[in-house]
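User: Structure please.
Assistant: Input sequence and predicted structure:
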Amino acid sequence: MTLDHAHAHATARPLPARWEAIARLPRGPRAVAGAPLVAAMFRAAVTDLPLRVEYPDGTALGAAPGGGPLMLLHRPGDFAARVAAGGLIGFGEAYMAGDWSAPHLAAVLTVLASHIDTLVPAPLQRLRALCLPRQPRAQRGTRAGARANVAHHYDLSNEFFSLFLDETMTYSSALFDGLDPAPSWTDLADAQRRKIDRLLDAAGVGAGARLLEIGTGWGELAIRAAQRGARVHTVTLSREQQLLARERIAATGLADRVTVALQDYRDVTGRYDAIVSVEMLEAVGYRYLPTYLQTLDRLLADGGRVALQAITMPHERMLATRRTYTWVHKYIFPGGFLPSVELLEQLTAAHTGLRVTDRYSFGPHYAHTLRLWLGRFTARSGSADTLGFDPIFRRMWRLYLGYSEAGFASGYLDVHQFVLARESCRGR
């Protein structure tokens, strides 16, 4: 584990040893020899981008003032050394260390994400497989690995997530009633409920339905399903989420309709009329996707439907990056993997009797969801400090939220709702 985890009702502890590694400048051969090359490549790349980069000596590259988002390079040499040593991991660590900043972080990252295929010269891109680190074996989605990966992210503390989530405590893309004009924070809770209701409708969840939810979150979907009269078995690997979900469900008077289990998806038994899973598939890992899909097939009763919400990426990009180890893996989501639509459809057909019968894309809604989360998190930075989350940790999470927003805003990422059913049930 790379981060300590605070109990839901405890103060998070800073990790000095962790941040000492961030503060220490790389000194290996790759950093020393590669820094001048990275500095030159970066200058050449940003010159033609709709982005303005300002250096400490007053030099500015890219767009004219006001012509694009502003990136401030505070320590250009350190920035270049970190990127030379660690690639995109080094780019993220440079932000954590304070080597660069941006008044509008997501806007800068959106420009970079939109030009990701041209930022690195083609000859160097072909060396990608030789240079990039691979996922540590301990982060694979085995039962033990999955528990550790989930704890790394979700057991930080429930208070921490409440800093930027709305009253529903829903940590996945909302579905707004239109994006023009741009929805505000007050629209977010209703948009989350709209997303949940669309999934429950797609899965045919109504009175008397036996529903399995894989990935409880903090319980909002289970609550809304139980309010429809369904009997819900929901599973999570996060002890902190389980505790708060149970509290929230009990407060609605629905505890007799919902079971919240600390359980791996592979260990669920029984048969269910409907299965719903919201943005949990991304934690399964590439090598375990067939197992996950086979589990859905095994647990789904005849005539039932599965409704999934999942983040996706373009197929060619997925193939190029599926085995790489990224800044997000190292600091945010160990073991994570984002599939393509094509991969999910191929694996479903190859390993199960299920087929994708419907899918719905709403990536721009995720960009706006993340924009609201980032604004809320930034505004409540003082509260995060009170909880014990130090400045480097807070910069790390701002980068994560901004990086994610940029992925959806640029079209590099998308989010889909999928409906799966057996061949004999298509069209029902």
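Residues 1-16 have pLDDT under 50 and may be disordered.
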